[in-house]
Amino acid sequence: MSLQATSAAYVDKATANPSQMGSGALVTQVKNMNGQWIEATTPAAAEPILPANGAQASIRGFGEPMVANASVRLVAGSPTADITPTLTVPTGCVALCAESLGFMLFTVELDGGVPLGTDLTFAQVNALGTRTIRNAVAGAEHTLSISVYMSETTPVKFRNVAGNIGIQFNAVSVPS
Predict the structure, then answer these.
(1) Mapped to the 3 state alphabet, what secondary structure does 64-78 carry?
(2) Where are the beta strands (DSSP E) in the chain?
(3) Per-residue pLDDT tens over the stretch 98-121
(4) 37-75, pLDDT tens digit by residue?
């Protein structure tokens, strides 16, 4: 199974608490494949992320996982914020692509630290309370690393299916 990831920091998903910040707007950016920081204003504008070690997600126990890294930051002048990454199903991922998500197992890591969880389902990743980047400051880069295996129970019909996952970063300002 081949797999591609996309990442977006939607400006319209950011929430600024005016009583807790100065005059700066809360704006998030993600790093694209060319190493440039960009803002995505809609899901269609999400940036693709190439897997760091190839585009194949192996069956657990039979090869290496597919690894994707997504970097996010707050734009200069943004207030301190909590940033929460969430796995999403991209618009074009339907039928077999969407069905294949149920057989993916994820290991999630923030900023090169200890994994937040291993062998998690799509829903379990999004339920992790520890996935939020707390008190992020403007200009500081944070990286979400995701390793993906296919479950040993993955049906053969998914062998040549192209899968796709999205990563959305939502930011909420916090008192500084």
Answers:
(1) CCEEEEEEEEECCCC
(2) 2-8, 28-31, 37-38, 47-49, 66-74, 81-88, 104-110, 117-120, 133-136, 142-150, 162-173
(3) 888 888 899 999 999 889 999 999
(4) 988 666 666 666 666 555 555 555 556 778 888 899 999
Sorted by sequence, the CB contacts under 8 Å of residue 139 that are 6+ apart come out as: 73, 74, 76
3-state DSSP percent of the chain in helix, strand and coil, to 5:
15, 45, 40
Sign, CA dihedral 136-106-102-94, equals positive
Q: Domain coordinates of the chain in residue numbers?
A: 2-173
d(CA 115, CA 118) in angstroms, rounded, equals 7
Return the ∠ at Cα 29 (arms to 128 and 24), rounded to 5°: 105
**Tokens 């339907």 belong to which residue?**
94
CA distance linking residue 120 with residue 117, whole number of Å: 7
What pTM was estimated for this model as a whole? 0.81
Q: How far is Cα of residue 67 from the mean position of the Cα atoms in its chain?
A: 12
Residues with Cβ within 8 Å of residue 78, at least 6 apart in sequence? 24, 25, 26, 27, 28, 138, 171, 173
